[in-house]
Structures are given as structure tokens and as C-alpha cells.
Amino acid sequence: MRTALKSRIATTGLTTLGAAGIATAALTGTAHAATQPETKPATQAAKADTQAKAKAKAAKAKGEAKDKGEAKDYPDNLDGWIREAMAIMKKHGIPGSYDGIKRNIIRESAGDPDAVNDWDVNARKGIPSKGLLQVIQPTFDQYHVKGTADKLTDPVANIVAACNYAADRYGSMDNVDSAY
To answer: Cα 58–64–80 angle (5° rounding)?
Structure first.
């Protein structure tokens, strides 16, 4: 029994010594590896630096586009149409606030760019009001702003033309509180 116990202690001691030896070798290997040049991380760092410079250049270009009033991406929804229209209006000196435009759109078409009024006096004359701000074709043609779509029901063109008309007639779309 003593022999079995002695053998067990010796094996455990070797196992412990073996683990310590492995740990020492691993530390030595790590220290050795640290003194060698690390080409892979340096390559990754250079790549990350290049990517960061490219992102910075793209951000700068985007900022310059904003400053020049160049095309931006707007969501294809009511908020995006109003914001895009307001950018065009600003460029052309047409007054109107986001809230004033939205209030009138909700009243006129409930935000539906394809809304058509087929029952009022204009409709009876054969020229129904259409679009977000319920504009008739002759008014759209007269107040259309160059650079917007030449289609009455185009959401942005409809907003800009209607706001241009409202500015001429009422001072601003903000001053319109009923059918206009």
C-alpha cells in the first residue's frame, strides 16, 4: 500500500511539475515572441489607418456636399419629402416651416401624395386638385420650381410649388390655415 501511495504522490508531483514546466515554457515563449517584430498587427494597423482616412475623406466630402446644397439622401416618406422640399425652398428663398407645411399636408391629403379631389369646383371644371397639398395643374405649372420633378403628384415638387404659391399669395405656407 505504501508503494501505491508513493507512486500516486510521485505521479501527482510530476503532473504538477509538468504543469509548472509548461507554464514556464509558455512564459518564456511569450517573452521571446514579444521581442520579435509583429508584422501582422502592424499590417492590420496600417489597414485600419487607411480605412479611417477613407472614412474621414468621405465624411468631409459629404459635409462639403451639404454646404454646397448638393443632393442628399432623404427617406421616401412624408418627413423626407418635407425636409427635401425645405432644402430646395431655402435655396430658392421660399419661406415655410416644417410644422406649417406638415399641418397643411395633413389637412389637405392626410399625407397621401396620390390624393385627388374629384368633387370641388376645380374638379367640376375638369382640373382636380392633386397631391400632398392639393394643387391644380395650372397653379403647379405657374409655381413649379426648376430642379424638381415636372409632375404634379411628385411629393417634393408638389410641396415646393404649393409653398411657392402660398408665399406669393399669403406670404408663407405658415399663414395658410384652410383651403387656399
So the answer is: 90
